[in-house]
Write a structure and sequence with these properties.
Number of helices: 10
Shape: elongated
Radius of gyration: 32 Å
Low-confidence stretches: 366-371
Strand content: 15-25%
Number of strands: 6
Order of helices and strands: HHHHHEEEEEEHHHHH
Number of domains: 2
């Protein structure tokens, strides 16, 4: 690789690494704060929180990389133009197409990284994340076995445990069931146990307690003392034993083949499958298109110590237009399985516009020269 290509590629890579680190950290922290409140509030440990956030990281990186690649290209090229380095390269005979070669190499490297994320890392992490969340939803300790707090596992039910012994015995139980529109039942017991039922759903066996039934029609209260009583709490806990896979957990081959059993499992159409599978192939190339769009837009301007702000604004507008086009193509592809090819339009259009701008930048600019004033000759 020539020295100029290595130098420009190194400049782009360093800035790209910085922007990627900052954007991933900001996006990840924004999501981690909400996830922390949810998991810690459900009684999960910090280790579970760290595992969930790490599994969500590949998808965050996939979303951030095209933006950071575009930002790195615009920033690096603008700085090199303001410091006259690219101006010197142009003066030495380098055309815009020639200077775009290391930029295209940089875009292809980002595209390759996104291909690995789209086809391998993101589907695998999404599948593991869904399994981990299903385990958390089935975890009785996180859902109900929290002492000293009034819990509301479902609407209309309040559950309280005063203490939990080392042997797993629940003490000082209070359970209020107001789900029925006809009556409200409140249970209180000195101790209780959670045991599995015959159908696999957990049962709450209470000892030495009292049940108070309030009939809402006439506000009549009935009190029943019991030595032991059983309450079915299986409906309070969402079990994930029969969890079906989501479309973003499937491999690209499964999406493109769109087997009938997978369509039934995910409740999606064949158009959704083909759209998702094709998007995994074409989406990485939007990074290449955005990088070349940013570079070619800045090449339209000349040297200026004040920066190429008009060209930078043009590059941002083109990137936004490309995103709107990509959204429209996605909607078209999902409308019918005959339009799966629409996903290719956005990256191809971006590359075509970049080539046109490079061609315009390579044309010699007309310079208006003032005609010299006539010289009077005196005899």
């Amino acid at each position: 690789m020539p020295r100029f290509d290595r130098y420009l590629l190194s400049q782009l890579t360093v800035v790209f690494g910085f922007f990627s680190l900052v954007l991933v950290a900001v996006y990840w922290l924004h999501r981690a704060v909400r996830l922390f409140d949810q998991l810690i509030g459900d009684g999960q440990t910090a280790g579970v929180f760290l595992q969930i956030t790490l599994l969500a990281l590949p998808n965050v990186i996939k979303l951030v990389l095209p933006i950071s690649a575009f930002a790195a290209t615009v920033y690096a090229v603008n700085r090199l133009m303001s410091e006259s380095e690219l101006v010197v390269a142009q003066a030495s005979g380098f055309s815009p197409f020639r200077m775009a070669r290391p930029v295209a190499t940089f875009g292809l490297l980002v595209t390759l990284l996104l291909l690995v994320l789209n086809h391998v890392l993101v589907p695998a992490s999404r599948a593991q994340l869904a399994d981990r969340r299903a385990e958390i939803a089935d975890n009785l300790t996180a859902k109900l076995l929290t002492q000293g707090q009034f819990l509301h596992p479902v609407s209309g039910v309040t559950f309280y445990i005063g203490d939990i012994s080392p042997q797993g015995e629940l003490r000082d139980i209070f359970l209020s069931d107001a789900r029925s529109p006809l009556r409200r039942i409140s249970y209180s017991a000195r101790r209780a146990l959670l045991v599995p039922g015959e159908d696999g759903a957990p049962k709450l066996v209470m000892f030495e307690g009292m049940a108070q039934t309030l009939r809402l029609s006439d506000q009549r209260l009935a009190v029943t003392h019991f030595a032991d009583s059983v309450f079915d709490i299986g409906g309070m806990i969402a079990t994930g034993a029969q969890r079906g896979r989501r479309i973003d957990e499937l491999s690209t081959v499964e999406l493109l083949t769109a087997a009938p059993d997978l369509l039934t499992e995910t409740s999606k159409t064949r158009a959704d499958f083909l759209s998702e599978g094709t998007a995994r192939i074409t989406q990485p190339f939007t990074a290449l298109a955005s990088v070349l769009l940013g570079f070619s837009a800045l090449m339209l301007g000349g040297f200026s110590r004040f920066g190429l702000w008009r060209q930078i604004a043009l590059a941002i507008i083109l990137l936004i237009a490309a995103q709107f086009l990509d959204n429209a193509c996605t909607d078209l592809a999902r409308s019918s399985d005959q339009f799966w090819w629409a996903h290719y339009l956005s990256p191809l259009a971006g590359l075509a516009v970049a080539m046109v701008m490079l061609w315009i930048a390579s044309r010699p600019r007309r310079r208006i020269r003032a005609h010299p004033a006539p010289v009077e000759v005196t005899a």
